[in-house]
Amino acid sequence: MYIAIADTITLEDPGNFREFHVSMDGDVAAAVAAFDGRAAASERDNHLWIDIAFVRELAGDAADAEWESQFDGMLAYANSKGWIDEPANRVEAHIQPPDS
Questions:
Q1: pLDDT given for residue 100 in this prediction
Q2: Domain limits at 63?
Q3: Which of 57, 38, 49, 63 is nearest to 93 (CA)?
Q4: Is the dihedral of CA 97, 66, 79, 17 positive or negative?
Q5: For residue 75, what pLDDT band results from cuts at 50, 70 and 90?
Q6: Is 37:82 a contact under the CB 8 Å cutoff?
Q7: SS3 for the chain, per residue?
Q8: Rg of the chain over CA atoms, in angstroms?
Q9: What is the bridge-based pairing of β-strands 2-5 and 21-23?
Q10: Cys-Cys crosslink for 39: which of 4, 35, 58, 99, Cβ 3.0 to 4.6 Å?
Q11: Number of structural domains found in the chain
Q12: How far apart are the two ends of the chain, measured CA to CA in Å?
């Protein structure tokens, strides 16, 4: 799954739990602005900390019990890699241009 930022913010390919990134043209500052308080710059270049509750919100109707279970598994894997900020309830994602 990935978050696409164009005119709006959408969650694309919500059933793919093996990838997670932000697809957009622009840099971290532009992404943080687009997320309007639901993301923060990471200390790593070209990465963001994204609010986990916002990802669930973006999933909409796709977020059934099976999706939640798989999403929790993805988050557990991300946590094992250091990609979860537990106090802020955020997951880290890299930014890549669309169609990359």
A1: 57
A2: 2-96
A3: 49
A4: negative
A5: very high
A6: no
A7: CEEEECCCEEEECCCCCCCCEEECCCCHHHHHHHHCCCEEECCCCCEEEEEHHHHHHHHHHHCCHHHHHHHHHHHHHHHHCCCEECCCCEEEEEEECCCC
A8: 12
A9: parallel
A10: 35
A11: 1
A12: 14
pTM of the model: 0.91
User: Rounded distance, CA 18 to CA 6, Å?
Assistant: 23
> Tokens 């990802």 label which residue?
55
- Residue 80 token pair: 């094992």
Helix 52-59 and helix 65-80: axis angle, to 10°?
Answer: 150
> What are the beta bridge partners of residue 6?
none
In tens, the pLDDT along 6-19 reads: 889 999 999 999 99
Which residues lie across from 85 on neighbouring strands?
90
Nearest by Cα to 28 from 7, 5, 10: 5
User: Backbone phi, then psi, for 49, in 5-degree steps?
Assistant: -100, 115
